[in-house]
From TrEMBL:
InterPro entries assigned: MFS, MFS_dom, MFS_trans_sf, MFS_Vesicular_Transporter, Tet-R_TetA/multi-R_MdtG-like
GO CC, one annotated term: plasma membrane
A Pfam family: MFS_1
Annotated Gene3D superfamilies: MFS general substrate transporter like domains, Multidrug resistance protein D
Location(s) in or outside the cell: Cell membrane
Protein's recorded name: Predicted arabinose efflux permease, MFS family
Bilayer disposition of the protein: Multi-pass membrane protein
Domain of life of the native organism: Bacteria
Length: 404
């Protein structure tokens, strides 16, 4: 691996961003087809919801095991195996002839997704030097975001032709991505091995920080709290509650919900152009304070009396916040565990998955028993926890915080 210069990221970062784009593109293509294909087996709405959530649930419960695999076998092997597992299960799911088989294959795909995500983020944080970790995380996040925006539009059209077609196409994308990972990704040499002739069995470098030690760090706990809020809002409440809020509370069409989500994605894309450099140059603490403050303000706007303009402003402001919250917490984890800390990264990823699972359930229940405003108020409180934790972070504002 070539060592990065002052303004250069390691080549692995670009490769991981391309893989993230392909994975997110394929997932976006298959997402609209999942409920359609599941309902074709003649099952009810609850079973269709189970088919959607099985992937996320098994991704969550298997993430810690994926982290252990990373520490034992290395990032590249686990990443490639995870991509291949999702590819095989997705392709077979598209050919499934019964709902139980489809459900089982979706669950197995969640295991592969956890292996991919944990190993990719672990490798990303390991190859990026402290001065570039924010930019590396922003680049990786950008790959996911671009794929996630482009995928659903194509997926809807393909699902109309055949609900099986998106699954088969996604499987093909993943096979290509796994080939790219296997051929182009190389574990970085340790500092003591830079310039060594052989890289067949590279030294993993410094010993990874144990999970127990990481959990004793206020920095790591802050990253967990921030990532919980990201999962709660970005992957949970925004996708489940916001469309209902627009149609039922604002009395607008679904197109306006799409406009709000588009405003958020556009603001996030703009924010990503600077968030990584802010994280690395301005400092972890002030960048996280800014991101968490923007996120808290964005959710608090939705607690106000409903209005279309405030909804659109809220989505745009949260998009800016998400660009920082996608970079800073990951950089903090890298500061804590710069070596192969698979379980440390796994628990970090699990915090976002937990938010994505719990957020829609709790917010949906609060909407049913109280109001949309009550649900958004609790969401604001969850995001505000990250702001409170960020304000208590130690460290020099001009440099990455120290784990010591």
């Amino acid at each position: 691996m070539r060592r990065p210069g002052q303004s250069e990221l390691p080549r692995e970062v670009a490769i991981l961003a391309v893989i993230a784009f392909v994975v997110a593109l394929g997932f976006g293509i298959v997402a609209p087809a999942i409920p359609i294909f599941a309902s074709s087996f003649g099952v009810g709405t609850t079973a269709v919801g189970l088919a959607v959530s099985a992937f996320a649930f098994f991704r969550f419960v298997s993430a810690f095991g994926g982290g252990s695999l990373v520490e034992r076998f290395g990032e590249r092997a686990v990443l490639t195996a995870g991509l291949l597992l999702v590819a095989v299960t997705t392709g077979l799911a598209g050919l499934a002839s019964s709902f139980p088989a489809f459900l089982l294959l979706r669950a197995a795909g969640g295991v592969g997704s956890a292996m991919f995500t944990v190993s990719a983020l672990s490798l990303l944080l390991r190859v990026a030097p402290p001065t570039h970790r924010g930019r590396a995380a922003a680049t990786w996040q950008g790959g996911f975001m671009l794929g996630g925006v482009a995928g659903p539009a194509a997926g809807g059209l393909l699902a109309e032709l055949s609900p099986r077609l998106p699954f088969l196409l996604y499987a093909g994308f993943l096979i290509v991505a796994s080939g790219v990972a296997l051929l182009l990704l190389r574990p970085p040499p340790s500092r003591s091995a830079v310039g060594a002739a052989s890289a067949a069995t590279p030294d993993p470098g410094p010993d990874p920080v144990g999970l127990r030690r990481a959990l004793g760090s206020r920095i790591y706990l802050t990253a967990l709290v921030a990532n919980l809020g990201v999962g709660w809002v970005l992957f949970g409440v925004r996708n489940s509650l916001v469309p209902l809020y627009v149609t039922e509370e604002l009395g607008r069409t679904v197109a306006w919900a799409g406009a709000g989500l588009l405003a958020g994605s556009a603001a996030q894309a703009v924010g990503l152009l600077r968030s990584g450099r802010l994280t690395d140059g301005w400092g972890r603490r002030p960048s996280l304070v800014l991101g968490a403050a923007l996120a808290t303000a964005a959710m608090a706007i939705l607690v106000l009396p409903p209005a279309l303009w405030s909804f659109l402003v809220s989505m745009a402001v949260y998009g800016l916040a998400a660009s920082l919250l996608g970079s800073v917490p990951a950089a903090l984890v890298g500061d804590i565990s710069p070596a192969r800390g698979g379980r440390v990264v796994a628990v970090f990823q699990m915090s976002a998955d937990l938010g994505a699972i719990a957020g829609p359930l709790i917010a949906g229940w609060l909407t049913d028993v109280a109001s949309f405003q009550a649900a958004f108020a609790v969401t604001t409180a969850v995001v505000a926890l990250a702001l409170a934790a960020a304000l208590g972070l130690p460290g020099d504002d001009r440099r990455p915080v120290s784990a010591g």
